[in-house]
Write a structure and sequence with these properties.
The protein has 451 residues and is an alpha+beta fold. It has 15 helices and 20 strands.
């Protein structure tokens, strides 16, 4: 976040700041994301009052492949006692999109030179960063994916798993970012980094090909909208139906809070699915009122690293539900990521918001938006307030969630599972707008405004 602020202060656009922060997150938040992952961006252009959604998510590999991939390696991951099955290894790696996404954002809406935007992340990679305590908790849960091969040197140097406050350092990642700065995103698709990606995956039995990389393109997606409290909420249509769920809510303004909680739980139960995942989100608004919201992910990491470059490859094919029936090599995988903007009826931007958290992205966004739009809270309070998440008839509730609302949910037939802490499981929202800027304490997030 500090990197993005410095870029804004230097005259950069929201896109410049978002790209700089994205790349910095690939250094400092590598437990959650990485440069070999994928994501989505929603950009609001103040001058034209238009919203554009870009897809730079991972695509399915195998274009021109002449053999089947080796079996993936199953692992079990649990957050807060909620178990999930994942698969890692070379065959779990999808075609990465983050370098291309950074390039597309900068090309369309950037102001500063490309090297100036990449430089802060390269500097962070040379020095390393301190691991936030929430990320240390996530790392402990993801050891089976993070520690194979070179990952042990990064996340457990000397055989000791990193703890909160320890130095997180990826040897070689500064070299990779230097290549990105000097040669542009093409280096990761048709250049030397791309060749190394193909070599590493083939050595592990995967089928990602040079054609997969050379054919990869950033896509422009349709924008979907729904109304909340008289405001327009806009985002891409996602796997977990965030906009559809929002549109299914009744008018909440006149409902008592217990009845509102039941309406929200019913809407959440009617759509979507349940899946863990690791993502990070960045929300930026510049002085001209342009907004860029980016959500990106590495999956949980494949355990496959690029020698000498400190790059951990994604594991997106290891999350089976992201591959829809009929998906072929070269096609995009599905995702719950949903960077969002909120505008007034006459067009001006009011809020740029997004969340990490796989299928809890929708839940986290809805809670935060209801808090701001319906209750009129500031952004900080909206994100810090306790949330609940619905899985079938079970409501997972954070400590401090109002008891009268939980009682109403029980009376409506829901079972309540009370958590003893604010947790990574409940997503990670970041937002900036007229009500301030804030990041989610559940994932060590922060919000900053330029003075």
């Amino acid at each position: 976040m500090e990197v993005g602020l410095r870029v804004l202060d230097a005259g950069g656009s929201a896109a410049d700041a978002a790209v700089a922060a994205m790349l910095a997150s690939c250094v400092a938040e590598s437990v959650l994301t990485g440069i070999a992952g994928g994501g989505f961006a929603t950009y609001y252009e103040a001058a034209t009052r238009t919203t554009t959604c870009l897809d730079f998510f991972c695509s399915v590999p195998g274009l021109g492949a002449t053999r089947a991939g080796a079996p993936m390696v199953p692992i079990a991951v649990a957050f807060g006692g909620v178990p999930q099955r994942y698969e890692i290894g070379a065959s779990s790696v999808g075609v990465p999109g983050v370098p291309a996404g950074c390039g597309a954002l900068h090309q369309r809406w950037g102001r500063l030179p490309w090297q100036r935007v990449v430089a802060p992340a390269a500097s962070l990679a040379r020095s390393g960063t301190l691991l936030p305590q929430p990320h240390a908790g996530t790392l402990a849960s993801l050891q089976q994916a993070m520690l194979p091969g070179f990952g042990a040197q990064v996340y457990a140097p000397g055989g000791r798993l990193l703890q909160g406050g320890d130095l997180l350092y990826h040897p070689g990642l500064d070299t990779a970012l230097g290549i990105l700065a000097d040669e542009g995103p093409a280096a990761f698709y048709t250049g030397r980094v791309g060749r190394q990606i193909v070599s590493a995956i083939n050595a592990g039995g995967g089928i990602l090909t040079s054609t997969d990389l050379s054919e990869y393109r950033v896509l422009v997606l349709p924008v979907a909208s729904a109304e909340l409290g008289g405001l327009t909420v806009s985002a891409r249509p996602d796997l977990n139906d965030f906009i559809v769920t929002l549109g299914a809510l009744p008018d909440l303004a006149d409902l008592p809070r217990p009845a509102r909680a039941v309406a929200l739980a019913d809407a959440l139960r009617s759509y979507g699915s349940q899946r863990l995942g690791d993502t990070t989100n960045i929300s930026v608004v510049d002085a001209d009122g342009n907004a860029c919201v980016v959500t990106l992910t590495l999956g949980i990491g494949s355990g496959v690293w690029l020698d000498g470059l400190g790059i951990h490859l994604n594991s997106m094919l290891g999350e089976g539900e992201l591959i829809r029936p009929g998906t072929a090599p070269g096609d995009r995988m599905a995702s719950c990521m949903c960077p969002t903007v909120v505008t007034a009826p006459d067009g001006p931007l009011l809020l740029a918001i997004g969340s990490a958290g796989a299928t809890r992205i929708r839940t986290a966004l809805l809670h935060a938006l209801i808090n701001t739009v319906i209750d009129g809270t500031g952004t900080h309070e909206a994100i810090h307030r306790p949330r609940f998440h619905v899985v079938s008839d079970l409501v997972h509730a954070e400590p401090g969630y109002p008891e009268d609302e939980l009682d109403a949910l029980q009376e409506a037939g829901y079972k309540i599972q009370r958590w003893d802490r604010l947790d990574h499981y409940f997503g990670g929202v970041s937002a900036v707008g007229v009500a301030g800027a804030a990041g989610d304490p559940r994932r060590g997030g922060i919000g900053r405004l330029l003075a």
